[in-house]
Design a protein that fits this description.
130 residues; mainly alpha; 2 domains; two-stranded antiparallel ribbon; elongated
């Protein structure tokens, strides 16, 4: 369900940006004294929007890892799987749960770095435009 929702939202964003690309460009370039602030705003907004899906997935991985550690079984009880999956129990499951939590932390850090990179890029562009 999450994959379908993400695909639909992504397709709508692509269509919207394709259709409104020229008005957006005209708005960005319309007032030279405001251009730097507008470019910085657009890049910051883009960074924030690009960071939301990885942060949401990191939250899901963290929750899954916590459930695995708490239950001591992977996949955790009540978790639906697509096909027959071997159940891992005991210390191996706890290691897998901790690995999921570590992956969640790495994904969260990567999305924060992406946002910071785009924010920094906006500052560089606004400094050069001014």
């Amino acid at each position: 369900m999450l994959f379908v929702l993400g695909t639909v939202v992504g397709a709508l964003l692509i269509l919207g940006l394709g259709r409104y690309r020229t008005p957006l460009r005209d708005w960005l370039l319309s007032e030279p004294e405001e251009r730097a602030r507008r470019v910085k705003f657009v890049l910051s907004l883009t960074g924030a929007l690009l960071s939301v899906p990885p942060v949401a997935f990191a939250g899901h991985l963290w929750s899954l890892g916590a459930r695995v550690i708490r239950a001591g079984v992977f996949p955790p009880p009540g978790y639906r799987v697509i096909r027959d999956t071997p159940v891992i129990a005991g210390p191996a499951a706890v290691v897998r749960g901790r690995g999921l939590k570590a992956l969640a932390v790495c994904l969260g850090i990567a999305s924060a770095l992406l946002w910071l990179l785009l924010w920094w890029l906006g500052r560089v562009f606004s400094d050069h435009a001014a």
